[in-house]
Amino acid sequence: MKVTKFVNLVAVGLALTCAVGCKKKPVGVTELPGHKPAVIGDTDQGNMLQNPPGTGDTGTTPMGNPADWANATRNETKFAANTVHFKYDSSVVPSSDKSKIAEVADYLKGTPNTGVEVDGHCDERGTDEYNRALGERRALAVREELIAQGVDGARVMTVSFGRSRPADTGHSDASHAKNRRAEFVLLTK
């Protein structure tokens, strides 16, 4: 009898937690003009990098068109020394690596028929879905730094490989640190 009441109480508590705890407005998120305020649990947030219709320039730049660069020559070694490394579970570009991005930006600004693909990577911890999303955030953060340095956003593509292409296959902290990165691939038309 007591067990049945306890199970019923737990079931009611879980139901109330789900009903009350869902669909909360996120804290610390800047709302964009022309977009409805985001709610946790929404599935259609739209492409936040695109300018909202009818609002003019919001300071963001649309993603480059990958089709424009489909026949470009790829050089994966040109910027090997400019690989940006991230802290655990972070997509914040470390200030110590911003000079690497500035070097890539200077090269791109000096060579008009070039672009760059920014590849986001993660270490082996976490689910595939989480790591693909984190790799995307890392690539986009580097892309935004390039744009802030004066590179046209149409010349910067992003790709997330998550944890599928480790630089170091070990399982130590040092290996994980090498795998939390964004790499540059030079594209030449």
Describe this structure as you would to a colleague:
This protein has 4 helices and 5 strands. The protein has 2 domains: 1-60, no CATH class; 66-188, OmpA-like domain (60s Ribosomal Protein L30, Chain: A). The N and C termini lie far apart (76 Å). Strands 1, 2, 3, 4 and 5 form a 5-stranded mixed sheet that branches. It is α+β, with helices and mostly antiparallel strands. 32% of the residues lie in helices and 15% in strands.
Show the helix and strand layout.
Elements: H1 2-21, E1 73-75, E2 84-85, H2 98-110, E3 114-121, H3 128-148, E4 156-162, H4 173-179, E5 181-188
Parallel strand pairs: 3-4
Antiparallel strand pairs: 1-5, 2-5, 3-5
Helix pairs in contact: 2-3
Task: Fill in the keyword field for this structure.
189 residues; 4 helices; five-stranded mixed beta sheet; single chain; 2 domains; alpha+beta; 5 strands; 60s Ribosomal Protein L30, Chain: A; elongated; 15% strand
Q: How many β-strand runs?
A: 5
> What is the CATH top level name of the largest domain?
Alpha Beta
Based on CA atoms alone, the radius of gyration comes out at 21 Å
CATH architecture of the largest domain: 2-Layer Sandwich
- Topology pattern, helix = H, strand = E: HEEHEHEHE
Beta-strand proportion: 5-15%
Quick description:
The chain is of the alpha+beta class and about 190 residues long. Helices cover about 30% and strands about 15% of the residues.
